[in-house]
């Protein structure tokens, strides 16, 4: 059923509603499926869950070859926790893999380098050539209204391609966003990575090869690296992808703060949100991408952060509503202009594309006066993202 025809239901506990892109469901009391699944974080026996994880990975430990598993990572504090679990608690030797967003921040570059140094892990980064990446962004912005699609396509396939090419049958992902936000699965379901989930939720039901046509900027050759391995290739390696969040009570904020304190991972002020850990590695995510999300869905990333905090009991719904309104009109013009210059477009052209895909902008909520007590509790040890003067393609984050 089209979004406009679906009955509108607001969750009685969090800020999400029935128009959520992952398809929330609601029980008779008006509680959304995301909140229902989140409640398992306090009801499940996580000691037993972790013991089960140890049994799941045991056959892969010490396998022939250099690596026991592949781990997708990004330049944020949360991934220090994931690697710490895999390397030090599970005793596996992971090959870390990262897909370059081209919009890296200093904090993100520092975190990736510190991650490698801290855990003595090899890291394999995929960087598409800048001219080709610009073509991909131009195509997905004009056709899909997305600047994030090329990175999502790469991030969700690069680990799988590496696993197949190197005959490493286990991929360990941190968490499954549709489950964390919308409760798509119970943690006890132990859902695993699938081509179908990538297609429906990450790629907006578009496959890379569908972006090539007579009118497209892209050729079939241009999108080869973003295509999922064939079923026969997957079967040959017998590759599977598991999610740590099915075996640990995943808490991005708590884990990130532990890693900032323990290992010195970078946390920085981001435009559009109070969260100083999520996507601090990508200068475009909380600026251009968030502007698109606001136009498309009517809310920005800050709502995702607030719903997470409501569910963990760290903020009340009334205060969360005020905070969301306070962040509704954040100024990201500086970073936006960096992106427009990088891609070779004008702000007016960007606005035309937003209107073409998603219609006129809705009036922003009236700015609210929200307490800073909650927001100031987030750690900051790196320069604010708004101060960046350029995107960093590759580089050293540590001074050794």
Structure description:
- It is a single chain.
- The chain is mainly alpha-helical and 400 residues long.
- It contains 16 helices and five strands.
- Strand 1 (69-72), helix 4 (78-89) and strand 2 (94-99) form a beta-alpha-beta unit.
- The protein is globular.
- The model has no long low-confidence stretch (mean pLDDT 93).
Task: Provide tags for this entry.
single chain; Rossmann fold; 16 helices; globular
User: How many angstroms separate the termini?
Assistant: 56 Å
- Got a strand count? 5
CATH 2nd-level architecture of the largest domain: 3-Layer(aba) Sandwich
Low-confidence region ranges: none
CATH topology of the largest domain: Rossmann fold
Q: Provide the number of structural domains.
A: 2
Helix content: 40-55%
Quote the beta fraction. Answer: 5-15%
**Class of the largest domain in CATH?**
Alpha Beta
Mean pLDDT reading: 93
Write down the Rg: 21 Å
Biggest sheet, in brief? 3 strands, parallel
The tally of helices reads 16
Short description:
The chain has helices spanning 33-38, 40-43, 46-57, 78-89, 106-119, 130-144, 149-165, 177-182, 195-202, 231-237, 252-263, 285-297, 301-311, 317-326, 333-343, 347-358; strands spanning 69-72, 94-99, 123-126, 170-173, 240-243. The chain is mainly alpha-helical and 400 residues long.
